[in-house]
């Protein structure tokens, strides 16, 4: 990655953190959860990865709790830099331990390979691109999962996290959809 791209991503992340912080805690999560539930309805019973929100991330946990009654729900476990994520089965109220980056993980991991992933992000554009925290974990993971079988990734965010354009790399994995409190974006795959 060039120094210019590194700086542009750093600047974009700082601006995205600020926009997300302003949206967080303003009562938008419930509307977004309703939209996320609707988007995920056709995939009920499939193995699903959600995430346990940290900092100012939008909260998918109520939807994960509902879907755990119909099929396996898991959460990402961050390993070493350069490795893809692994996913441990999660159920509401399961014993948790503190993981990396302030995340929580199931105390006794039961590994699951998700078919559908709810993906956190800092910013997104109207083309289905996302800006994450910079570790490349989701990009590596989506690339590996998609090489094995069809895998869907839905970004979950506030409207305030949308930007006109993002600094991108060839390794950045696009999303299949993005759900916010007012809109669901879908991105058909090129023929």
Structure write-up:
By secondary structure, this protein is an alpha/beta fold. The protein is built from four helices and eleven strands; from the N terminus they run ααβαβββββββαβββ. The protein has one domain (3-186): 3-Layer(aba) Sandwich (Rossmann fold). Strands 3-2-1-6-9-10-11 form a seven-stranded mixed beta sheet, with helices on both faces. β7 and β8 (130-131) form a beta hairpin.
What attributes does this structure have?
seven-stranded mixed sheet, globular, 191 residues
Short description:
With 191 residues, this protein is α/β, with parallel strands linked by helices.
Please give the CATH architecture: 3-Layer(aba) Sandwich
Q: What is the average per-residue confidence, as pLDDT, rounded to a whole number?
A: 94
CATH fold-type name: Rossmann fold
Shape: globular
Please report the distance between the alpha carbons of the first and last residues: 29 Å
Please provide the ordered H/E string of secondary-structure elements. HHEHEEEEEEEHEEE
Name of the CATH homologous superfamily = NagB/RpiA/CoA transferase-like
Structural class: alpha/beta
- Major β-sheet annotation: 7 strands, mixed
Number of domain modules: 1
Determine the number of helices (DSSP H or I, runs of at least 4 residues).
Answer: 4
| Strand portion | 15-25%
Report low-confidence residues grouped into runs of 5 or more.
none
C-alpha-based Rg, rounded: 16 Å
| Sheet with the most strands: spatial strand order | 3-2-1-6-9-10-11
Percent of residues in helices comes to 25-40%
Could you give the count of β-strands?
11
Which CATH top level class fits? Alpha Beta
């Amino acid at each position: 990655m060039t120094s210019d791209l590194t700086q542009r991503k750093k600047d974009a992340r700082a601006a995205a953190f600020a926009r997300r912080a302003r949206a967080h805690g303003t009562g938008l999560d419930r509307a977004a959860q309703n939209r996320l539930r609707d988007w995920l309805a056709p995939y009920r019973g499939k193995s699903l990865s959600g995430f346990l929100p940290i900092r100012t991330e939008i909260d998918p946990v109520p939807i994960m709790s509902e879907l755990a009654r119909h099929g396996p729900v898991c959460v990402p476990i961050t390993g070493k830099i350069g490795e893809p994520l692994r996913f441990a089965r999660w159920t509401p109220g399961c014993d948790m331990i503190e993981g990396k980056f302030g995340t929580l993980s199931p105390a006794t991991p039961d590994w699951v390979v998700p078919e559908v992933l709810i993906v956190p992000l800092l910013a997104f554009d109207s083309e289905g691109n996302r800006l994450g925290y910079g570790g490349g974990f989701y990009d590596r993971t989506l690339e590996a999962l998609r090489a094995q079988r069809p895998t869907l990734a839905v970004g979950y965010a506030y409207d305030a996290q949308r930007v006109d354009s993002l600094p991108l790399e060839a390794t950045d994995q696009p999303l299949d959809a993005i759900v916010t409190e007012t809109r669901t974006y879908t991105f058909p795959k090129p023929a």
